[in-house]
Amino acid sequence: MIRILTLAALLATATALPAQTPPPAPAIPTDARVAALRDAALASDEYAWDIVEGLTTEVGQRMAGTEAEARARVWAVRKLTALGFSNVRVEPFALPVWERGFESAEILAPFPQKMAITALGNSGSSGPAGVTGQIIAFDSVDALRAAPASAVRGKIVFIDHRMMPTQDGSSYGQFGAPRRQGPTIASKKGAVGIVVRSIGTDFHRNPHTGNQNFTDGATPIPAGALSLPDAEQMARILKRGKPVTMRLTLVSRNIGSRPSGNVIAEAPGRDRALAPVLVGCHLDSWDLGTGAVDDGAGCAIVAAAAKRIIDAGRPLRTIRVVWFGAEEVGLFGGLDYRARHGKEPHHAIAESDFGADRVWRVDSKLGAARKAEAEALAAALAPLGIVRGSFEEASGSDIGPMAADGLPTVELGQDGTRYFDLHHTPDDTLDKIDPAQLRQNVAAWTAMLGVLSGGIEQPRRIRRR
Amino acid sequence: MIRILTLAALLATATALPAQTPPPAPAIPTDARVAALRDAALASDEYAWDIVEGLTTEVGQRMAGTEAEARARVWAVRKLTALGFSNVRVEPFALPVWERGFESAEILAPFPQKMAITALGNSGSSGPAGVTGQIIAFDSVDALRAAPASAVRGKIVFIDHRMMPTQDGSSYGQFGAPRRQGPTIASKKGAVGIVVRSIGTDFHRNPHTGNQNFTDGATPIPAGALSLPDAEQMARILKRGKPVTMRLTLVSRNIGSRPSGNVIAEAPGRDRALAPVLVGCHLDSWDLGTGAVDDGAGCAIVAAAAKRIIDAGRPLRTIRVVWFGAEEVGLFGGLDYRARHGKEPHHAIAESDFGADRVWRVDSKLGAARKAEAEALAAALAPLGIVRGSFEEASGSDIGPMAADGLPTVELGQDGTRYFDLHHTPDDTLDKIDPAQLRQNVAAWTAMLGVLSGGIEQPRRIRRR
C-alpha cells in the first residue's frame, strides 16, 4: 500500500517519468517443487560455504598455470566427486605464464616516500634496479593518447581517474581503460614505465592487479597499479607543482607455457539426447588474495545449486558444471571449452563470476521462441527480490565468447556495489563473503536450474507453456 | 521532549536501571567569547586539515629517529612559525633505532600459501633465510604462559584472540597483551619465532605493527603480526588437525642511537608568571602508513585550536603546543619533556593521540580545589555532545608519565570505534580523516583552551566561579 501511494504521488508530481511503466510480468506459476528447492536453499546452506571455505583455505591463491592452480584442480575433482557428481574430469590446455616478483614504488623527489604498488599482468620487468623517471600525469587514457610522444618519452606515466561503485559493475568497463590500454599507449610514446590509479573503489593500501597485454608491437614496460590512497597522495604531491621523480621497481618474468584445465562435472539428465544446461565459474584466481569472491564464491554457488538438484532427484536435462581454468589472464578456459564444445547444442549457458553479494537482476537471451521459458525463469526468481532485466542481452566472463556466438545465455546479475573494493586485491579473502547473501545466490541458481533443466523427476517431455 | 518521554518510559519499565541517575551538572554559563570561538571552529576549519594534509603529503611516514622524522621536525618548525606561534624550538634527544627489512610468512605444509605479515617493533631478525618451525597455537598470552617450555621449544608460536572495537579504546589494553608480552614469553620458552593476530579490528590484509620489548633477558626472536584475514586463515588451517609448518622471514636491524626531538611552540600568555597549559600530540609515526590518524591529526587539532586562540587575542596563561618525537617506540619524547620540565608547574596537560573521530567524553584530574574549573570545562564542551566523564582520572600517551606524577591533566576522549581498523597499519592515510569530525575536535580543544587558559584579552585574574 505504501508503495502504491508513493508511486501515485510520484506520477502526480514528476514530469520526467517515462509515459508508460513497463507492462506487468505475466502471472506464471512457479513449479511447486522448484519453489520449495529455492526456498530451502535460501534458508540453509549445506554446500556453498563449505566449498569456498575449503578451496580458499586448503589451496588459497591459484594463479593460472601455476602449481597452485594444479592443486586446485586436484581439490576440485575430489570435491565434485565426493558431492556425487558424474563424469568428473579435467579438460587440459596450456597457456603462457607471467610471474610476479619484487615490487616497489618510491617517490625520490620532492617528498621522498614509498607507495603501495602491484604489477599488472604481463608487466615488463624493470629488473631489480628499477627504472627512474619524472612523473607525467593524465586524467584519462584519452588524455595520454592525445599527448605528444616528446612529452612522454623517458618519463613514467601516471593515469588518474575516478571510478565509482555501481550496482551493475558497469563502471569497470569504462574506467578499466587505464589498465587495459594505458601500458601499450605509454610504451609506444616512449615512457619508461606506467602507474595507474587502481581500477577499484576502496581506500585501502592494497592495489588492484589485473590483466593487460602489450599490443600493436609495443615493447613491454613496467606497468603497475597504485592503491587509491597512494594515487590520491600522488595527485596531492603533483598539485604542489614541483617535478616529481619516482623509482619504479617491478620485477617479473615470463616462464613459458604451463598446463591448466577446465574441471567439468555433471548431473546427468533423464534424457541424454537433450542439450545440457551449463553453469560455470572460474577456478583460477589472481595471486594476491585467496580468490574468495573472485571466483571461489562462483564455483561454490553453481556447484551447490547443481548439488541441490541432484539431492532432489534427476533433472530432465543434464546439468553441466564447469569450473574454468585460467580466466583472469585471458579467458583461456572459456576459449578452450568453446573450441571443444562451442558447436554442440546447449540449452543455456550461465556463469557466476561477480562475487557473492545478492543477485538483484536476471537477464537472458534465449531467443524469441523461448520467451515463455525466460518469463518463467524471471517469475521463479522474483520472490528473491530479483528484478526482470533484459530478454535480449546476457553474457558472462568465460562464457562471453560463446554468448557472442549466439548460445542461449542467462545472466544472474549480482550486486557489485562493493565488488571493486576487493577485486584483484590481497583483500579478496573468505571473511568478505556474507553467508546470508551467499545463500540467496544459491537459491537463485537452484531456481534457475529447476526451471531450465526441465523439471526434476517429471515426465520426459518438458511441459510447453 | 522525545528524550524525556523515552526516559520516562524506560524508568517505568526497566528494573535493571540504577536506583539513582547521576546528579545534573551545575549550570555554569560558558564565557560568550569561548562559546563563539568553539562554534566558529565547528563551522569551518582554516588550519587543521591544512596541517595534517601537509605533514602527511610532504613528509609522509616519519618513523622515530629516522631521517624522515628529522624532515618532519623541519617541516613542523616552519609550519608553526608561519602560523605565528612564538618560541618555536626543538628540544633534541636520542634513542636507539630499530629498522624494518624484508618480511614474509609462508605456510609450507599442509596447505602451501603466503600470509600477510609485518614485524613488531624490536623484533629479532630471522636473517634472509628465515626460520622454519611447526606452529603451536594459543588463544591468549595466559595460555602461552601456562604451556610447558618443552611444548614450545623449536616451534613458532601463534597467539590468537578476539579484540573487538570499543568506543573508549579499552579493548586495546587487554587484547594488546599478545603483542607486548607474547614475544618475551615465547622466547624464554625456546620458540624460534612468534606470530600474533594483529591487535586490530579490521579485515584487511594490512597487519598492525606496534612496539614490544624483549625483557627479562629474553633473546630477541622474529616476532610479527598477521593481518586478521590471515590469522583467521591460520585458525582454519589449524582446525584441520594436521601439523602446520611455517617459514617466517623477518629481516631487521638495530642501527644504534639516532637523534629525535620535541617540537615546541607557544602562544604567550598575558601573565608570564602563570603556569602554562600544555597541549600535545606526537610527530613521529610508524613506518607503514603516513601517520594521518596516528598522530598527524592530533598535531593538527592541538595546533589549530591554539592558533584559533592566537587569532582571537592573548590568553591569560601561555599555551604551549608540544609535538612530541619518538612516541611510538617508547614515549621517548614524553619522557624527555618530563625530565626537562616535569617539575615545573603546569596549569594543565592534555594530549590528542587517538585519531580524528569526534570527541565524545571529557575526563579531568585537576584536583578537588579546581572542581569548578573542571565543571566549567565540561559545560563548555557539552554543546558539542561531549559527555562529562571522570573528575578523578585523566591521562594520555606522552603525557602519561607526567599525569601519573600528578600534573593536572585533561583528556578529551575521541570515539575509538574505528581507530583500531587503522592503527599502526599501512592504511593510516589522509583519506581516513573525516573533515567534519576533525572540526568537532578542533572546536572541543578550542573550547578547552578558552576555559583553561584563563580568558582571552580579559582582566589579568581569572574569574572565580
Structure description:
With 465 residues, chain A is of the alpha/beta class. Chain A has helices spanning 2-13, 32-43, 48-58, 67-82, 141-146, 149-152, 170-175, 177-180, 182-188, 228-239, 292-312, 332-341, 371-381, 400-405, 419-422, 435-452; strands at 86-109, 113-115, 117-119, 131-138, 156-159, 193-197, 223-226, 245-267, 277-282, 319-324, 348-351, 359-365, 387-388, 409-414. In chain A, the strands form 2 sheets. In chain A, strands 1, 2, 3, 4, 5, 6, 7, 8, 9, 10 and 11 form an 11-stranded mixed sheet that branches. In chain A, strands 13-12-14 form a 3-stranded mixed sheet, covered by helices on one side. In chain A, β1 (86-109) and β2 form a beta hairpin. The model of chain A is unreliable at 1-19 and 458-465 (pLDDT under 50).
Strand content of the residues of chain A, in percent?
A: 15-25%
Major sheet attributes of chain A:
11 strands, mixed
Terminal CA distance of chain A? 32 Å
Radius of gyration of chain A: 24 Å
N-to-C SSE string of chain A, H for helix and E for strand: HHHHEEEEHHEHHHEEHEEHEHEEHEHEHH
Count helical runs of chain A: 16
Overall residue-averaged pLDDT value of chain A: 93
Give the chain pair forming the largest contact, with residue counts. A-B, 34 and 34 residues
Helix and strand content put the structural class of chain A at: alpha/beta
- Net shape of chain A: elongated
Which percent bin holds the helix content of chain A? Answer: 25-40%
List the helices and strands and how they pair.
Two copies of one chain form a homodimer.
Chain A: H1 2-13, H2 32-43, H3 48-58, H4 67-82, E1 86-109, E2 113-115, E3 117-119, E4 131-138, H5 141-146, H6 149-152, E5 156-159, H7 170-175, H8 177-180, H9 182-188, E6 193-197, E7 223-226, H10 228-239, E8 245-267, E9 277-282, H11 292-312, E10 319-324, H12 332-341, E11 348-351, E12 359-365, H13 371-381, E13 387-388, H14 400-405, E14 409-414, H15 419-422, H16 435-452
Parallel strand pairs in A: 4-5, 5-6, 6-7, 9-10, 9-11, 12-13
Antiparallel strand pairs in A: 1-2, 1-8, 3-7, 4-8, 8-10, 12-14
Helix pairs in contact in A: 2-16, 3-11, 11-16, 13-16
